Amino acid sequence: MEWKRKHLLGLEKLSLDELNAILTTADGFRSVSTRSVKKVPALRGKVMVNLFFEPSTRTRISFELAGARLSADVINFTGSSSSAKKGECLTDTAKNIEAMGVDILTVRHSSAGAPLQIAKKVNASVVNAGDGAHEHPTQGLLDIYTIRESLQKREKSIEGLKVAIVGDIGHSRVARSNIFGLRTLGAEVYVVGPPTLVPQSLESLGVKVCHDLDEIVPEVDVFNMLRIQLERQDNKMFPSLREYSKLFGLNKQRLSRAKEDAIVLHPGPINRGVEITPGVADGPRSVILDQVSNGLAVRMAVLYLVSGVTEECDGELE
Amino acid sequence: MASSSEAKNKILIRGGHVVDAASGLDGVMDILIEGSQIAQIGPDLEAGDAEVVNAEGLTVTPGLIDMHVHLREPGKAEEETIASGALAAVCGGITSVAAFPNTDPVIDNAGGAEFVVLQAKRAHGANVFPVGAVTQGLQGEQLAEMAGLAEAGAVAFSDADRAIESAEIFRRGLLYARMLKKVVITHCEDRHLRGGGVMNNGSVSVQLGLSGIPNAAEDIMVARDITLAQITGAQLHISQMSTQGSVEGLRRAKARDLPVSGDVTPHHFTLNHEEVKSFDSCFKMIPPLRAEEDVREIKKGLADGTIEVIASGHAPHASEEKDVEFDSAPFGVIGMETLFSVSYSELVLKEGLTFSTLLSKLTTNPAKLLGLYPKRGALKVGSKADISVFDLDTQFQIDSKKLRSKSSNCPFHGKTVQGKAIDVFVGGRPVVRGGEPSV
Fold it and tell me: What is the per-residue pLDDT across A206-227, written as a single tens digit (0 to 9) for each?
């Protein structure tokens, strides 16, 4: 298919064909990282800015490296997420940076919708690198890519697969992007956690809400264990980390009741001993480090695809 | 033109379709204004030396009364002043507004209320009546000097967008308001349930990952405040109703003859939370745009009389404040200039509400609640000549940049509506002529 999107703002609106196009393109870039010369000239002469209004290490480094491997010039900008505090409004910052001749902006922001607001005001392509609790599309894509990779070895497909996303789903952009992408690809998605973090209203996204991890462990093909943000504990969203871990943490004993070929993902950084035990994180079912390597290939694919489109397609910014 | 009419002091509004919910007028007739009052109403009146305003093909109504607006003066004159607000009001056919006290400083004493009254006199636009604070500084702790406020011109009391958290303090405020024979206007919201919410809690907030405000935040407070109205006997007015539950609560309370009433804004019966998908902060207000089932119940409440007032909730904000991340933007949208056209287009043209019923919610009913009736809110001989003349037939598109408010945070930009104010008179003074302000 012909790629038509100028921006990647989320996975919600991507069609099955578009998702597959990104995954297939990523296949092509996967091998670049294993060569002795880890570079292709796809984005030579293009400028990419990582516009990060919220602290991030791995996503920023991954985007930076992805840009470098495509031969783009990559600049990093980190700023305070509160435009009011900085005295300059969000779109002014973006337009100023764009005025220096930028082709792609990757945007990370603590407020949902900020990348869309920027995309409405600038000419560059905008790639959402995580906005509030809304979407983190490249994380969703790399999770899906990793799941797909492990399935390919076993000649299975994502359609009909049972995926459990465990943790603070209500406040998670990773969960949302995973849900949107996996649903389009035909997976069955369970969201698991206490009702204070996993509200019943999530069912409107086409997922099954579950508050008992043990109940579904034997049926699940993929466990995606989200990081418990410690500030949620400060907000008294659940009684204690210890109890959370007991109810919703993935340990060896719990995993032993799962299917033999079930795999374990985690978007990182891991709170070892809270949502996942070291034995599981480092164990044979874990594909956590594959996720990180795949992140690079997926981000190269996204940057490559959006950089080839200069006009927004119909409805892209609605 | 203004000076000559002042010299004559007589204006004849000729040949318009006169409609007044209070007096039951509904037909083509003339209205003669003498000085600041209505002198005669009837068919084919003698013009004599009066200036004649031709209203043929137009609809003549009592000037509208908007009982919920924020004019930002004192404190934020760059967003709205009493003068700019009074002008914006008349451009929407509104001749009287109740200005809320959440300014800086708060209108919580007689001096503050007098300032509003004086600025309104200097403004020469709509009548501006101050709403006094219930508690000092809107802190919800110590009652403001409510008698002093009333004496200085306050027509109602409210702690604006802050619900008084202590039921006991609010009970005392209601008792005082009853003594002063004034209505208390409340914003019903439980602060803890609202939390850090920025939009309606529901399927859209789940999809967008924005923090939600549940219906229960409003429903619970409506239930509490109705109980307090019952035990105090004070007149309680629930402003900006947005949920199915609060409409049902008000309906039950009215069935028991409790002294309660309610209003709703045009945006809450025209738009729903789907709008937020654009992340445009012109759709961020408190209470938030709710789900379609709430919108339906509000329309039902308007039709069956449960909700007797429509008010704009006019809340101007500077573009630099609004044009930021959705999370960071302040709550509130403007609405005086679109109050009539949006209400008429949505409720009368689309939903089939009678024009007279719509009019009562914009004139007679708020006038009665604020103690302005029958001097205002009616077309009667001897009433103040606060009169609006509307063109109900011509379609036009709302352009937020062409509004007279100092702010342009309008959620109806681009919407095609009908019902434009052509001529408006405040106390017999022409303030809008031919669709343009004349002051």
Answer: 999 999 999 999 999 999 999 9
Count of alpha carbons within 13 Å of A63, Cβ hemisphere only?
30
A86 among known catalytic residues: yes
Please report the ipTM that was assigned to this predicted complex: 0.89
How high is the pLDDT of residue B57? 97
Provide the CATH number for the domain around residue A102.
3.40.50.1370
Residue B402 covered by a domain = no
Q: Are residues A224 and A286 in the same domain?
A: yes
Token output for A178: 């995973």
d(CA B281, CA B212): 15
- Mean pLDDT score of chain A, rounded to an integer? 93
| Helix (H/G/I), strand (E/B), else coil: A75 | strand
Examine residue B401 and state whether it is found in any structural domain, yes or no: no
Of B202, B209, B328, the CB nearest to A201: B202
Q: Are B300 and B423 in a shared domain?
A: no
Contact B383, B37 (CB under 8 A): yes
Q: Taking a C-beta distance cutoff of 8 angstroms, is the pair A53, B325 a contact?
A: no
Token look-up 């009052």 returns B37
Altogether, the residues listed in chain A come to a count of 318
Nearest to B207 among A83, A90, A205 (CB): A205
Q: Does the CB of A90 have a partner CB in chain B at under 8 Å?
A: yes
Which residue of A111, A172, A209 is the best one to mutate when testing the B interface, meaning the one whose CB has the most B CBs within 10 A? A111
pLDDT at A32: 87
Which of B207, B208, B325 has the CB atom closest to A83's CB atom? B325
Q: Which residues 171-230 on chain B approach chain A with CB closer than 8 angstroms?
A: 201-203, 206-211
Q: Which two tokens stand for residue A184?
A: 């389009």
Closest-CA distance of chain A to residue B202, Å: 7
- Residues in A closer than 8 angstroms to B320, CB to CB, are 89
Please state the rounded mean pLDDT for residues A256-268.
96
Q: Catalytic site residue A58?
A: yes
Q: Is the pLDDT of residue B19 over 80?
A: yes
Report pLDDT for B7.
Answer: 52
One domain, residues A56 and A173: no
Q: CA-CA distance, B11 to B61, in Å (whole number)?
A: 16
| pTM metric for this prediction | 0.93
Residue B43's domain is classified under what CATH number? 2.30.40.10
Please tell me whether residues A104 and A148 are part of one structural domain: no
Structure tokens at B65: 């009364």
Task: Give the domain range for residue B17.
Answer: 2-60+384-394+415-437
Residue B127 inside a domain? The answer is: yes
pLDDT in tens, A188-210: 999 999 999 999 999 999 999 99
- Distances A19 to A13, A61, A145, A185, A222 between C-alpha atoms, Å: 10, 23, 10, 8, 19
The values of phi and psi at residue A129, to 5°, are -105, 25
Same domain, B210 and B311: yes
Q: Do A129 and A148 have their domain in common?
A: no
Q: Which residue of B has its CA nearest to A86?
A: B324
A196 is a catalytic site residue: no
Sequence-separated (6 or more) residues with CB below 8 Å from residue A134: A10, A112, A113, A173, A176, B208, B209, B210
B128 and B249 belong to one structural domain: yes
Residues A208 and A239 in one domain: yes
CB atoms within 10 A of CB B78: 13
The total number of structural domains that make up chain A: 2
Structural domain boundaries enclosing A213 = 137-292
Q: Give yes or no for A206 touching B (CB within 8 A).
A: no
